[in-house]
Amino acid sequence: MSAEAPTYLTALQNNIRTRPIPWDGAVRAGTVLEWQLTKIRAVDKVKKDVRKQAVESDLDGYRILFAGGANDGQPSVLQSAARRTDVVQYILVLLNDLLEAIPSLAKAILATAKKEDPYRNILPLLAHSNNADDPIPLLTATVLTTLLSNARDESKATLERALPALLSYLSTLAQQSTDAGLQDIGVLESSSLLYGRATRKQFWAQRSETVAPLIKILRTAAGVSTSGGEDTAAGLWRATGNGHNGSSASGGDAVTSRIGALLEGSIGGGVGLQLLYHVLLVLWQLSFDAADIGDDLNEEYDFVLLATQLLRLSPKEKTTRLLVATLLNLLSNNRATLLPTAVLARLPALLKNVAGRQHADPDLQDDLQQLRDLLDEYTATKTTFDEYVAEVNTGHLRWSPPHRSTVFWAENARRILDEDNGAIPRKLAEIMAKPWDNDKAVLAIACNDIGALVREVPEKRSTLEKLGLKTRVMQLMGEADEAVRWESLQALGGWLKYSFETK
User: Fold this and answer.
1) What is the DSSP string of 39-51?
2) Domain of life, per the record (predicted)?
3) Contact yes or no for 412/388 (Cβ under 8 A)
4) Which one-letter DSSP state was computed for residue 33?
């Protein structure tokens, strides 16, 4: 793996390495074959150079030792020792050590993938038992991760059989919110598997398993709802709103938050900084395919908002670097769809604050400047109308300047109704149809906007009524929230006024 192994895994492996295995007794019992023991002893508890020479001089022999030889009927030692869990554990640790020290062994094991299944004796161990304390599935996942990442294999056997099963298992580790050690192993090993476009594509194809738990960790770190949907969106937009009102990364609350995170070694929700870094590393790797996944990543997980809030709270330069690089990849490859959300999330102002910090990393400085230039270029050509449409299309409204501007509505109401065959009113109807239990301001703002459209273009009232907006406004007059009741009353008042005038 590319990063240092998590402490929990290292401790487990060290414990297994020190266990005495009665090899001669295992041979007498038929658990290990004589030829297998000969090869094991040639590499077990010997100097690194001796081990390396032994394996490299007999790559095919060690391939058969660990993967088996289907053509000549020779069994893998994992197959022979299947009933002795202590031996299986020891062999898995030994195999991982060899794979890490001798990359050519990984290529040798997978070299036969077109002719036979190199995973037939290893992959089943991922499902060795349902006992959470059984180390065999974890050790197997580590072996498979090292095997695939060192060989950088994209064979059919890997992409269609081994990788999907391995990703599913690692995702169960990433979901272990009560065990940060297992979470970190799951995330870090997932990162090691994203070595090529094909493996990243498979990771994304399984995103309900693979990406969802990572987003949940990020939401916890950002201090917003982890349930997804409306609650999460409301929390993220409130967070960006707070940043706009002076609680940005340079403000008192955020500074206190970052200092606290540095002292405690964690960020929001107790998420460890190392775990946060590894999760961000995976999202950064996925962003290499931003042109293919960027829109869905943002639509399904509100990622631009989430990354912006995390950037506001980022306590370390290494997390800031990954967030900025990921946002740059996403926004530069999805300008039309993601730049509007980034502007509404107050990213340009936040980047100014971030750029004002002292950063030692030249790559971070370059990415920051590119991201700022990209956003500056976008905002220089956008009108207030564009900003309003972008806000509506996010599916979440906030009291931005256009909503209360009589000039804005006088100049743009008709265009809002006619643009793209009425797409904007349809989106407003979609927004208003939700209950917004955790952010009633959205409903108040929507009523304000509907009232403005009726006031400025009264002859289009029937169009709005066909969308169910009049009925919804009337329903909202019974809301417990005072602001919603007031705005709905105002909107309905305009409707009634023009109805009476036309009689």
Assistant:
1) HHHHHTTS-HHHH
2) Eukaryota
3) yes
4) -
Q: Residue 494's CB: how many other CB atoms inside 10 A?
A: 19
CA distance 40 to 91: 9
Other Cβ atoms within 10 Å of 341 Cβ, number: 23
Rounded to whole angstroms, the Cα distance separating 24 from 37 reads: 8
CA distances in angstroms from 361 to 74, 267, 460, listed in the order given: 53, 22, 56
Q: Cα separation of 285 and 396, whole Å?
A: 29
Q: Show the CA angle centred on residue 57, arms to residues 55 and 60, nearest 5°.
A: 70
- Burial category of 335 from C-beta neighbours within 10 Å (exposed 0-12, middle 13-18, buried 19 and up): middle
Three-state helix/strand/coil letters over 144-162? HHHHHHHHCCCCHHHHHHH
Which residue type occupies 173? L
Quickly tell me which residue has 């912006």 as its tokens. Answer: 308
How sure is the predictor about 157, in pLDDT bands with cuts at 50, 70 and 90? very high
Q: Which amino acid is at 290?
A: A
> b/e per residue, 225-238, with b = 16+ CB within 10 A?
bbeeebbbbbbbbb
pLDDT digits (tens, 9 = 90+) for 446-466: 999 999 999 999 999 999 999
| Cβ contact 122:67 at 8 Å | yes
Where do the domains of the chain lie?
1-205, 221-381, 385-501
- Residue 305: alpha-carbon gap to chain centroid: 13
The fold of the 221-381 domain, in CATH, is: Leucine-rich Repeat Variant (1.25.10)
Which H/E stretch holds residue 103? helix 103-110
Q: Which fold has domain 1-205?
A: Leucine-rich Repeat Variant (1.25.10)
Superfamily of domain 385-501: V-type ATPase, subunit H, C-terminal domain (1.25.40.150)
Q: What is the pLDDT at residue 256?
A: 36
DSSP calls for 444-495: HHHHHHHHHHHHH-GGGHHHHHHTTHHHHHHHHTT-SSHHHHHHHHHHHHHH
Mean of the per-residue pLDDT values of the chain: 88
Say whether pLDDT at 254 is over 80.
Answer: no
Closest among 174, 264, 261, 270 to 216, alpha carbons compared: 174
Residue with tokens 């102002």: 349
Residue 99, amino acid: L
- Give the integer Cα–Cα distance in Å for 492 and 503: 17
For the chain, the distance separating the N- and C-terminal CA atoms, rounded to the nearest angstrom, is 76
Structure-block tokens of residue 232 = 């999460």
Among residues 92, 168, 187, the alpha carbon closest in space to that of 136 is found at 92
List of E strands, 309-397: none
Q: How far apart are CA 395 and CA 405, in angstroms?
A: 21
Query: Residues of 287-321 as b/e, b for ≥16 C-beta within 10 angstroms?
Result: bbbbebbbbebbeebbbbbbbbbbbbbbbeebbbb
